[in-house]
Amino acid sequence: MQIKMNRALVLAGMLLLELPRVQATGTPASRLYASSLTYNDVIALSEALEKIQQSCHVNFNYSNAVVANKFIPAAALPEGNNFNEANLSSALKPLGLALVKLAGSDYAIRPVVKMNVTNPNEYTFVDHKVSGIITSDKGEPVPGAVITNKTTGKSVITDAEGRYTIDVDNAETVLTVHCIGFVARDLKAGTSSMLNAQLMTDVRNLSSVVVTALGIKRSEKSVGYAMTTLDGSKVNTVKDVNVANGLSGKVAGLEIRSVSSDPGAAVMVTIRGNSSLNGEKRPLFVVDGVPINSTNLGAKAPVGQVVVDYGSPISDVNPDDIASISVLKGGAAAALYGSRGANGVILITTKSGNGGKKGLDVDVNFSALYDQAWQFPEFQNEFGAGDATDAVDPTNTLSTASWGPRLDQGTKHLQWNSPTDKDGNLVATDWISYPNRVKDYFQTGSTYTSNVAVNGKDFRLSYTNMSNKGITPNTDLTRNTLNLAASRDLNKNIRVSSNIAYANNHSNNRPTFNRGSAESIVYTMPANINTKLLKNYWQPGLEGLQQFSQDLGSTDNPYFVAHELTNGYERNRITGDVQVNINLTQDLTLMGRTGLDYYNQTEESKRAFSAVQNKLGGYYIGGSTFMEQNTDFLLTYKKTLNSDWAFNVSAGANHMNTKTTVTSQSAGSLVVPGLYNISNGAAGTIANLSKLYKKQINSIYGMGELSFRNYAFLNLTARNDYSSSLPIENDSYFYPSASLSVVLTDMLHLHSNVLSFAKARVNWSRIGDDTDPYQLNNSYVFMSPDWGNVKLGNMNNTVLSNHNLKPEILSSKEYGLDLRFFDGRITLDAAYYDADRRNQIMNIPVTGTTGYSAMLVNAGEIRNRGWEISLGGTPVNKQLIWDAHVNFTRNRNMVVALRDDVPSYLRGSAEGVQYQIKAGRPLGDFYGRTWTTVPDGPYKGKELLDNTGHSQQTNDFVRVGNYNADYMVGITNTFTYKHFTLNTLIDWRQGGQFFSYVYMNLLSDGRTTNTLKGRDAAHGGLAWNDGTNDRHDGMIEDGYIDNGDGTYVKNTNITDPESYYGDYYWKMHARNTFSATYVKLREVSLTYQFSKSQLGRLPVNNLSLAFIARNLFSWTAAGKGYDPETSMTITNGGITPGTTSWTLPYTRSYGVKLGVNF
Predict the structure, then answer these.
(1) Where is the signal peptide (predicted)?
(2) I need a labelling partner for 567 at 20 to 30 A (CA). Which of 29, 941, 1032, 1110 fits?
(3) How is domain 128-199 classified at the CATH fold level?
(4) What is the rounded average pLDDT of the residues 272-283?
């Protein structure tokens, strides 16, 4: 009855509102509203807008207060999905409201701006025009904002990019800027032609929309879990070749680590810590609703010892095409993605058309970044090659170690490139240093990116070319991407949309890692070697047969490695989807979608004759394909019951099918030099490999939301997966989630000048997870090469399979609080989570008598707990705008349990360091050798040496570190003044440890300044006799020697530097383990935005020029030249964090970016 009464009153009010217009125009009322109009012919405006959003796939941005208790004629509702702007605008006008077109399918409902003009016939002198950009407190453009000249009353509206131009009378003119959802503000025009402004979110009427799981758009205040959304400009201003690297330091709870400084390197991505006992668990990447493969393509040692990194396929996503990125962090956020979302989800939404504007827009962007290798270890340049400073043996200086005579003293010695006399004897040459021998090898890298995009009403076509030259000679990477987004209304109830992306990656040579790589060779060259002399890497007259090397037979020439030991690849990838949305009724919609992710990759490695690991050359050619197809549908019903209650429910299903093939052929030796073909492989050295993997998951799911008075929201989800990788009796697993979001300021009426908005949220979820295919039964494979005419067979692996596997179970709960103060000038979002992963599918070691090395079981439980805090604010909001944002992440994990009969086990090792898993200890511990100590007495804890005064290792491996950080912090600052915008990002990681094999190797062979002490008398060396020669490089290790009777004496034994540093560092992993703390200036951009007046008559809508940079500054607790961020060892089996082996040096990048819109 109350609803009917409201409608009747509103009907009368609407007619009264129209009366002046009728009188003025002479238009009969019957022409405006039908004479038969009754309360049944009107509909609540809020309900009407909701129906239009559902049926026509548009979004309205409005304040609840603006639309409350307002009604419009029901005839204004569109038929089917054919939205008519004119009809709705006419219906809103009598209510004092206007419909404002934003970007894409977004609109704003705003009050009509009243002109403040005392005499409309009076002419006003226009002093000049003012242009600018209106942005939100998140730094994103605000389309549809109204800028009003308070003197003339004239108004303009910002375009889709937040830009405006308005006439002003003089410098004292006051402009008012307001937009639905933001706090209005006044600006003084001033004398400049450029005036930017930032609007604070009106948090009291928060109605912004975010993209959640399955691409569902929801009101931000209804979301009951932690998620972070970034505008595309956050990753495409200072672009990284891999879009994942562009997220580093910007999202609380998200950790990004690249395995090297190479732009095409693989990355490790983790959300809320690692929770798996069986390797890396990556989040699911979803592009435009379609899951895509982001698994690192594998570090491989195709021929020989060096390892090649082919990168990560997530880098195929072009940053220039990204509109927004949403990171779903908790189990409740990702539950609808099933087992694949167990480790979080990263949703990428790409750009679409130009929002319905007439004609075509053309965007052109170009950027150039230059990479410079820097922060090398502090190599010593005072002593050259050799085994002893005071050596008598003249051939001593031909050693690869750096314990030889002092350099630059006017002496001559035999060395690596000594000429020979007429009798064939080596001739001594000047013994001088080459301090730039390492830097001379590396070149300035470059990355050029060009993007052209054409935007139409309902389509966008984009092409991007990226060309990279690496800092290592003869390394490169080229990528071409083509992206098409299109949509069309087939009729009033059916809408079809599609996104298709093609990417081609090509490289003639990728960088290599570990022993034998060019980096390992250059780093270990003695100071008397001139790198430039190695550029001609073939011995004269033996081109193609014998390299010219600084250590022939033991070490490759680094330029020979770069040009003759190449590792090329090419990857072609296509991703895309077709989606159909059908309005079955005004309340019931159906979405159907099918998506594809397919790529094929070919790899080719060549090894020339005389390579250290392949004396007679070698060849490898391999290929792999990956295909994943997802087909899903979602049926959704939405209903507003009354002014208090509303609900929506959805049900859907998904079919996922994947197929992977791997083939390769290799030849360990060649017959004819330089002919790279498998048919040229030497007999008995050819190996073949072929693998096929298939997997399917069928899923059904449902979700529902119940809202009360638009401030309390309860969301429930449920999903059941059926996985082909699990046994039939255990292949079905069910997991639910529940979340509750309550806007406290609305419910408790807590609004004040200080506290503008407060939302509390809580959620719980349980998710299942399966395993890789073919883990249920052991199988056999043919071995290669054959034994004559006999095919050899063996077991596929040494792990005993398990046909009784069950799914892993991840349970999590989360509590969160979203607070905003002073009309959004200060924001605080905090979350605490507690996640437990049990029934882990893992390999448990077994005794060798079984014939296996391990068995696959369900065992183990890991718990992750942590805090995520995001603090934002706008300290200054005048002509100078300063935005600051800080995010903080703290995660703690623990191995709660393994199996009763297995309290610990060895998961793997790298460079002598062991990764042991122990119940009651954090995941990420690594173990190594350390030194023995005096067990008791007055010298207890002091180092215990052997009887000759040398360090002793402990018998057992002890814990020396953990690679997980104590906490991580990202700090973003944005300063905007007139035409200029300065943005900086600081990435700070605190705590954790890493073991550096590089540090251990360099010090044990005397290659760095740390090893100068004791080299000669000038460096504190002691005079002594080694039994043959008098020397001045004596050293005494600090420690005690056991007298054998329970007492200990201070060591006085003298030894040489090589033995001293070799004992001290080479044997002890603990002495080569360092803090992983670092602080990096990750990004800097300084952008100048040209105004309309500056552009003049140029046929250009917008023009910007920016200085951009990455990693301009870096500080590490470990010291210069040892980067904890890349503290990962790349092996043929994958990537192991916490241990640094030979990799590329740290780089800093700087360049320019130009953006033009026509």
Answers:
(1) 1-24
(2) 1110
(3) Immunoglobulin-like (2.60.40)
(4) 82
